[in-house]
Design goal:
49% of the residues lie in helices and 21% in strands. The protein is α+β, with helices and mostly antiparallel strands and 380 residues long.
């Protein structure tokens, strides 16, 4: 009969195991700790958890303490009709073998005999829903006939193990699914990148073969916009969290790369904004808008200007809304004339369409250069 001190120690073991199982995400680690604690609580020599394999005809020694090397994580045991393991699972209750030498009901594997096991208890472990997972086996090198309190303690311990194992199975399955999704996303982004590159090459080839200057100009504009789309996607999906990304480094890297491509314009870029994150569904159209504005500024805003060319990007958030302003200190928006270059309005039309995607209305001004202001609801 367990005394009061033993009962208190066993209650402490249950609490310690519960806390450990909540902290750990590793099934083998949890099962090994379960074996260690049960051995300490009952002062037994050996403990192991055996797992029913997929064929439902054999058991795998998943974890354990006190066993010689080559047993835990390597040994497979049969689930025959004359094994105590099969009988315990069939009965759904702990099965006690006081001494395997004199036991006539069951056959025991050589690993138990070689380890000097005499007394043994098999306690079935069931997952939520009633499916048998395996068994908790506690063994002693002395004949052992645990009393009712010992047996109930083991049954309680196995009952706790079932939901813990089920939770860790779900964690493992979720990790596998996440890894597969990451792999699929990487493959998808690689294909998108290759497809955009192929389209860009086709546009450039067509541009070289175009018969008129106007056609070459329009195809050049299309090619630059496709390249901008590639750069935006590259920045968005290079982020650790493809769903959201920090706005400031994203805008800075995107526009710095664009300015570097047009180094002949000698433009200084200034990005002034708070630390904030935006979703990819906002980042992509917003990046294309800023790219379009910057490209047009470098091409047209500073012709004939002697002062230092500047493009300034500002952003702030307030009351759940995001306000983004991009401006230059060039010569301002040109007046609409019949002699305007073909396609000169397509940039503003593209910005208007992209602005609608993020729920903003473009607000243009042309006092000291050109400025575009966008204000829209910040999406969660």
């Amino acid at each position: 009969m367990a005394n009061i001190e033993q009962m208190i120690r066993r209650q402490r073991v249950l609490a310690d195991f519960g806390e450990f199982a909540l902290r750990s995400q590793d099934l083998d680690e949890v099962l090994t700790e379960a074996c260690r604690l049960i051995g300490d609580a009952l002062a037994t020599d050996l403990a192991k958890v055996v797992e029913i394999e997929e064929d439902r005809q054999s058991l795998f020694v998943r974890s354990g303490v006190g066993w010689p090397s080559g047993v835990v994580g390597e040994t497979h045991l049969p689930m025959g009709d004359h094994t105590s393991e099969s009988y315990a699972i069939k009965q759904g209750m702990p099965v006690i073998t006081p001494d395997i030498i004199t036991e006539r009901r069951f056959a025991f594997p050589d690993l138990m005999k070689n380890a000097g096991v005499r007394g043994a208890v098999n306690v079935p472990i069931f997952l939520p829903g009633g499916k048998a997972y395996g068994l908790l086996q506690v063994d002693s090198r002395e004949p052992w006939n645990p009393d009712t309190l010992d047996t109930e303690f083991l049954r309680t311990y196995a009952t706790i193990l079932g939901p813990v194992i089920d939770r860790l199975h779900q964690v493992h399955a979720l990790r596998l699914a996440t890894d597969r999704n990451v792999t699929l996303l990487d493959e998808l982004q690689h294909r998108i990148k290759n497809n955009i590159a192929a389209i860009t090459s086709l546009v450039r080839l067509r541009r070289h073969k175009a018969a008129t200057e106007d056609a070459r100009y329009e195809l050049g504009v299309v090619g630059e916009r496709i390249e901008a789309l590639r750069l935006v996607h590259e920045h968005v999906y290079a982020a650790k969290n493809a769903g959201r990304l920090p706005l400031r480094p994203y805008v800075k890297q995107l526009l710095e790369g664009l300015v570097a491509l047009h180094e002949e314009a000698a433009v200084r870029l200034s990005v002034q904004m708070e630390d904030m994150e935006v979703g990819s569904d906002t980042a992509i159209p917003l990046g294309l808008i800023l790219n379009e504005f910057t490209t047009n500024s470098m091409k047209y805003a500073f012709e004939g200007e002697s002062k230092q060319a500047l493009i300034l990007v500002e952003a702030e958030q307030r009351d759940g809304r995001l306000r983004v302003r991009i401006s230059d200190n060039g010569k301002g928006l040109p007046a609409a004339t019949k002699e305007a270059r073909p396609g000169s309005g397509t940039g503003m039309a593209l910005i208007a369409r992209l602005s609608r995607q993020i729920g903003a209305k473009p607000d243009w001004s042309s006092e000291q250069g050109t400025a575009l202001c966008l204000e829209f609801e910040r999406r969660k």
